[in-house]
Design brief:
With 194 residues, the chain is α/β, with parallel strands linked by helices. The protein has 5 helices and 9 strands; from the N terminus they run ββαβαβαββαβαββ. Helix 3 links the parallel strand 4 and strand 5. Bound molecules: S-adenosylmethionine (SAM).
């Protein structure tokens, strides 16, 4: 069986999952072969419930969007323009369905292998990075964000202690000002500014 970030053709079994985030109800279509198919991931929820929403606006990039939870939920609490990118075609298809399902506007979904198809700069880049894709991919998502952030832009992400949060923070501090916004159940929510 492939991993959730590959595009191999597992039999499709679309399910509809609901969740409440920040007091609002959302519906998401999920499927086999996408991250967190049983519903909103704990780390993604903690990220959404921790980031200061008054700092999240303008133009946002949801890097590794999966079926769209982060961008879609943020679209309901900000007036931002949101780009959501992934390499998993099934996840991108679901993300488009979920945009309709949740009646969101100002969101685009497109294929981009990390920043390969990104040609603009963002006020915010946000991600629950694909740990299973390996350290090179995760580090590229986080460190190359510098080239795609506006000068006052911010990077927000979630990572677990057991996934190497502490050594990652040491490395990030070489290029960003790093703030741990919260640590909960082994999950770290991290903000980086240039
Ligand atoms: C941990 S999941 C997070 C999904 C979603 N943002 C969420 O919070 O539920 C990471 C996502 O990164 C995507 N991904 C993996 N490698 C990637 C790459 N090279 N470029 C862009 N996205 C990638 C995966 O397909 C997956 O959807």
């Amino acid at each position: 069986m492939g991993q959730y970030f590959t595009n191999d053709q597992l039999p499709s079994r679309i399910q509809r999952k609901s969740c409440y985030v920040l007091g609002q109800k959302f519906m998401f279509f999920t499927d086999n072969g996408v991250f967190s198919k049983t519903g909103l991931d704990f780390g993604s929820r903690l990220l959404l419930e921790t980031i200061p929403l008054d700092e999240v606006g303008g133009k946002i990039l949801d890097m590794g969007c999966g079926y769209g939870v982060i961008g879609i939920i943020l679209s309901k609490f900000t007036s931002a323009f949101i780009d959501m990118v992934d390499i998993n075609e099934r996840a991108m298809h679901l993300a488009r369905k979920n945009i309709q399902e949740n009646q969101c506007s100002n969101i685009r979904v497109f294929y981009s292998d990390i920043y390969g198809d990104i040609d603009s700069k963002y006020d915010v880049i946000i991600t629950n990075p694909p740990i299973r894709a390996g350290k090179t991919v995760v580090y590229d998502m986080l460190f190359k964000a510098r080239d795609y952030l506006k000068s006052d832009g911010k990077l927000f992400f979630v990572i677990r202690k057991e996934q190497g949060a502490k050594s990652l923070i040491v490395d990030l501090k070489k290029v960003y000002t790093v703030e741990v916004l919260i640590r909960k159940k082994g999950y770290y929510i991290i903000k980086c500014i240039l």
